[in-house]
Amino acid sequence: MxxxxxxxxxxxxxxxxxxxCVEAQHRLGRTLRSLYERTVDGQPIPLDQVDLLLRLRHxxxxxxxxx
Length: 67
Hints:
The chain is mainly α. It contains three helices and no strands. The mean pLDDT is 82. This is Anti-sigma factor NepR domain-containing protein. It comes from Methylobacterium terricola.
């Protein structure tokens, strides 16, 4: 199973681009997460998305009652 995952990753990787080490991947992930938390994560959810979430939750409850 692990070999299949490795093989699929290798086939997706661009041979002209060098692979980055695990340390660099973790550092990049932490940096991107930090940027996200300071920008997008602190903003309120737009009203149209709140409405969509409420309708979805209402639909889920209706489906649970029908079971």
